[in-house]
Amino acid sequence: MAKTDSSSKMGMSAKNKILSVFATGWFAILSFIIIFPLIAGLIASFRPGTELIRRGLSVDFDFSTMTLNNYIYLFSGNADSQKYFMWFKNSLILTFVSVVGTLILCYIVAYGLTMYEYPLKNFLFFLVIATMMVPFEILILPLYKEMITLKLIDTTAGVVLPGICGASTIFFFRQYMTGLPKELLDAGRIDGATEYGICFKIMLPITKPAFAAMSILCAMNAWNNVLWPMLVYRSADKFTLPIGLNTLLTPYGNNYDVLIAGSMFGIIPVFIVFLCFQRYFIEGMTAGAVKG
Amino acid sequence: MKIKNFLYSQKAAPYVFVLPFILSFCFFWIYPLFSTITMSFQDIGPAITEWVGIKNYQKLLKDPTFLTAILNSAEYMLLTLVLLIPFPMLFAVLMDSRLVKAKGFWKACLYVPALTSVVISGTLFRLMFSEYKTGQMNVITAALGLGTFKWLKAKATGLAALVIVCCWRWTGVNMLYFISGLKSIDTALYESAEIDGASSWQKFKYITIPLIKPTTIYVLTISIYAGLAMFMESYMLWAGPDSPNNIGLTIVGYLYKRGITKNDLGYGSAIGIVLLVVALFINIIQLIFNGTFKKEER
After folding, report:
1. Do A282 and B32 touch (CB under 8 A)?
2. Total number of domains in chain A
3. Contact flag A226-B124 (C-beta cutoff 8 Å)
């Protein structure tokens, strides 16, 4: 009796081991498929851009034909290289401005929507949710016209302002803050702090984890955003990296050296941030999904 | 001094805090929304703006290009719903089980597409969907014995290309959504089901699916919106808003073409309003169907 019992247990664990190999193997295959286009791009970036026009993109591990020429050209400091790093710089500035602006404003708005009781509170929160019900793409025409009227076209303010009070960011901060002890507010008041002092000096430090998660998500969105910046920025010296790279995608393919090497190099900043702060990426992104 | 005292009072402070949202709401949401509704009833020329009533909408109804755009967007949305909800859910259940080793690594790999700009991934896919037999997708289909395709020149393969890009980009993200939903399910439920002798399939059907429903509804909602409003993927694959026979034209693509390229803000706005109504309608139906508006029965 005892023998059969232990043998059946052995059988189970052997079966589980096989299942485990299959399950892990499945994710290995899936991950490979997902990473594959980037590997293909990376390999192609070591070959002349004219190849891409002549042959399309495919993985070819012939190392003898691979050179660093595209990257040498990208860093050479010539006109193309200068243009590329100008886009890079513009993207960094835009990302910085929009992250700082978005986080500060969304934090205080969420603070106002969580820490006080007042008649319009629920209505205002309803409005936050309502803005999520309209796809941004529908508003591009009227916003574009509005930006021309407000003389904000071709300015960073014009790119950043429409999205600066992003509903999902407010939503995330609010969700985080409902879990914070409100007694801290009264404690602060007794100590003689003003309402604004409490907001910035007492509550802000303990909201840091939410800031971490949101800054990363906002930065990634700002770095990769293309549709709206493409409409607002008109002068070539203001283009961000995605807009600039997009201008290289011509049928003549005369700039594909810069396009492919520049695309691969442009992913690096986001990758580094991702590897350092992976946890926050997933936390920030999935926050809205659990509660629905 | 009085004003300062008032601004610092507990009564006024919350309004000061939410002021940025109110301003942004008025300037960048309500105003443009009303302005686009108004514009959709106007003919906006370079010099004069004219009220034309519902003429833009009447024109839309008879516009075959618009019909193409709607059908393309609808087909794309349906295909992405079919592929990007059940499969990521299954992957999430599998990933959440004890069977998979090195979970963090696979999750990170599957999340990578979400890090890349649509410009970069779109360029890579555009080049992989090259019509030459040396393009990656043709290499794969030829190896499978399916022959080669002019991917971006025919309707079916063009749609397939868009859906492939979408699956590539969102499978991992949707899986992570479902994983976070699974984390909120009480493991005691599974344990008691096991004691009652439930099979894995029964546990999935009777515990996982009902309890993960909020996440499913969330993913469904954002997928409906993202599917109907898709534009940049098509813009990148065809290197601009134009595609042969409009095979890659989406609703927002048409809005862009009429509103921005041809500067016909009235007609473009009408397209936007139709999109908004369709998106809201589908979503409300979906939410009613899923019982979101029902009062909690307990």
Report:
1. no
2. 2
3. no
